[in-house]
Amino acid sequence: MSNAAPRPKPSPSVLSTDLTVTGNIKTTGDIQIEGTVEGDIRAHLLTVGESATIKGEIMADDVVVNGRVVGRVRGLKVRLTSTARVEGDIIHKTIAIESGAHFEGSVQRQDDPLQNGQGTPKLAPPTAEAAPAPAATTEKK
């Protein structure tokens, strides 16, 4: 007999105000940052608390910024609240910026803003050396 009951959604991971993390953070769940992170963050839902500072790239389906971010933000839904301070570019599908938010950078809309941010570089266009040689032709007499 299978267990038909849905699993309860796990509670978000919380990094408290007295915690400083140097390095990248990756989770498939939700995370709330109240402390300081120097590194990139990948998550499903990321909430940056008012007392938080993040120096690095953020990539999440849903990003809510209440604190300070220095670096690029990529998200399907990005929201800057009135207490947000963001220095960096935002690449989003939908965005909301509340009155009072401080933002320095550019905003770019993409249908899939998470697509090119997985840490893998885009492939460079082929060079002339890599181009296939033209097919040899023979002349009939």
TrEMBL record:
Domain of life per record: Bacteria
InterPro entries: BacA/B
A Pfam entry, by short name: Bactofilin
UniProt region (Disordered), positions on chain: 102-141
Record field: compositional bias (Low complexity): 125-141
Family: Belongs to the bactofilin family.
PANTHER family listed in its UniProt record: HYPOTHETICAL CYTOSOLIC PROTEIN (PTHR35024), POLYMER-FORMING CYTOSKELETAL PROTEIN (PTHR35024:SF4)
Name listed for the protein in its UniProt record: Polymer-forming cytoskeletal protein
Species per Swiss-Prot/TrEMBL record: Thioclava atlantica
